[in-house]
């Protein structure tokens, strides 16, 4: 599932993950999976957290809540510029890369097209994510390169679901509590 999106189904009402979209950064049978929530910006300006890269970050220039695991850990994702050499970043699922925030910002600016910073991540032990998918908590869909950098993250979940066609498109406007439908 590496590189895929996990989109919370209407039945997933647990507040941490309700209405979320997660990009899966790693998934193995032995180690489980981890990713970051890409549609939950905080109110914290990125300049207050990692000022050296503030000018490189896509709008909204805010720190994003990447998930409940290690909330004091920053994970930066970027999109590599075509033909760029890995200067301060490592490929995840091309063109998506993880970025070293301690690297020279000028070199990052030359090799990245997009950048976003997340506090924390979402993680699953071996088999846990598969069980959650089987119980109907997550839709697994293909990601587009720009999904983690959506300019209006609040609209990302609906946009991702709409492009899936029927029947997933029907869930694009589901209320927080499906019983209210």
List key phrases describing it.
single chain, mainly beta, VC0467-like, globular
Q: Which structural category fits the helices and strands?
A: mainly beta
Average pLDDT confidence is 94
Return residue spans where pLDDT drops below 50 for at least 5 consecutive residues.
Answer: none
Provide the CATH topology: VC0467-like
CATH superfamily: VC0467-like
Provide the domain count.
Answer: 1
Largest sheet: 10 strands, mixed
**First CA to last CA: what distance?**
31 Å
**Number of distinct helices:** 3
Give a verbal description of the structure.
This protein is mainly β and 181 residues long. It has one domain (5-180): 3-Layer(aba) Sandwich (VC0467-like), CATH 3.40.1740. The chain is 12% helix and 36% strand. The chain is built from three helices and ten strands; from the N terminus they run ββββββββαβαβα. Strands 1, 2, 3, 4, 5, 6, 7, 8, 9 and 10 form a ten-stranded mixed sheet that branches. A hairpin with a 2-residue loop joins β7 and β8 (96-99). The longest helix has 7 residues, at 105-111. The radius of gyration is 16 Å and the shape is globular. The two termini are 31 Å apart. The mean pLDDT is 94.
Summary, kept brief:
The chain is mainly beta.
Map the helices and strands.
Elements: E1 5-8, E2 21-28, E3 32-37, E4 41-45, E5 62-65, E6 69-80, E7 89-93, E8 96-99, H1 105-111, E9 112-124, H2 128-134, E10 138-141, H3 156-162
Parallel strand pairs: 5-9
Antiparallel strand pairs: 1-2, 1-10, 2-3, 3-9, 4-5, 6-8, 6-9, 7-8
